[in-house]
Amino acid sequence: MARFIKNKKATIGQMPGEPVFIGRQKTEKTSIRVIEYNESSLNEYDQDIKKPLEIKDDLTTWININGLHDVNVLKSIGKNFDIHSLAIEDIANTGQRSKLTEYPKHLYFIIKMMRIDSSDNLVHSEQLSLIIGKNYLISFQEKPGDIFEVVRNRIRNSQGRIRKLDTDYLAYSLLDCVVDNYTTIVEQLGEEIEEMEDKIRKNPDKPLLEKINDYKREMNYLKKTFRPAKEGISLFSRLDSELIFDSTRPFIKDLLDNMTQTLEITDAYRDMLSDYLGIYNTIINNRLNEIMKVLTIFSAIFIPLTFIAGIYGTNFDYFPELHFKYSYPIFWGVLIIIAILMLSFFKKKKWL
């Protein structure tokens, strides 16, 4: 399946707000993990997908759902929490662009989680959807396994301010993990990209050219993901909503700064790869020019020699020089002198 766009044929003719799963099923069954907490208490458990979820007013509830292929589960959760039908439709479509949408009772944030797959050394993405409501946050993931264990541990161990603040701060914490992971991926690819410059200057072969193009493709894919993510975080920092408290806004603005820096670094590496392609082509062209220069010099030297040899290779009966005793060595002497004179002329003109 293409990474840059998902096949949306299944949505043709569907009513707006009707969820249709688009993407590749990455887990066998849908699972739900719930963490309820406040400053003094914590409760963590797996939830039966057939039972309705309940929210307690005195607790902040984080509901994490793995697996988006079962649209009936998505509809049930949407009905349970009065989530807008268009948001449920977007959750089921894993090809969505990162964005933040404000609905009357909740905020909906889509962002991509990125990872480098060791099997093909390519960057792959997973859609993360966040429903931010009063006292609850619901995260929708395509499969189990994520980068949020550090946030869970902070909740479990009551580290920092996370158990003292509301769901907007929890949403910020999850987004912060996503952006930090962006930076890690760019740094990992960047180290490999920077090491290529010396290799290009020393040995610009075809495999190296293919590698440059591969990295350029990955950086284009990252930029396609990062730009809308930055737009969503920027809107999150400016949004006038009762679900976002003033105490969290400085953290969101700092997150925006980190996202901006990561995007700028990505652009810098894209420019660097373009420069590498320029250097590669310049070196190859210079090598070709050197080869052509040598071949041209040899051709230029042999033109008069060929002319002389052509004259004395004709079939005329009367050639006075042919019967002279030293004609053959004189002939070779003339050829050698002409070659030496031409090489000296080329060197004087600094063509050699």
**CATH structural architecture of the largest domain:** 2-Layer Sandwich
Number of strands: 7
Sheet with most strands: 7 strands, mixed
Helix content: 40-55%
The CATH C-level class name of the largest domain: Alpha Beta
Tell me the distance between the termini.
55 Å
Briefly note the CATH topology name of the largest domain: Beta Polymerase, domain 2
Number of helices: 8
What structural class results from the helix and strand content?
alpha+beta
* Rg from alpha-carbon coordinates: 35 Å
Pick out the low-confidence regions.
none
CA-based shape: rod-shaped
Q: SSE order in H/E notation? A: EEEHHEEEEHHHHHH
CATH homologous superfamily placement of the largest domain: CorA soluble domain-like
**Structural domain count:** 2
Q: Provide mean pLDDT, rounded.
A: 88
With strands numbered from the N-terminus, the spatial order across the biggest sheet is: 2-1-3-7-6-5-4
User: β content, as a range?
Assistant: 15-25%
Secondary-structure blueprint:
Elements: E1 31-37, E2 42-47, E3 60-66, H1 71-80, H2 85-92, E4 99-102, E5 107-117, E6 122-133, E7 136-141, H3 149-156, H4 167-194, H5 196-202, H6 206-238, H7 249-312, H8 327-348
Parallel strand pairs: 3-7
Antiparallel strand pairs: 1-2, 1-3, 4-5, 5-6, 6-7
Helix pairs in contact: 1-2, 4-6, 4-7, 5-7, 6-7, 7-8
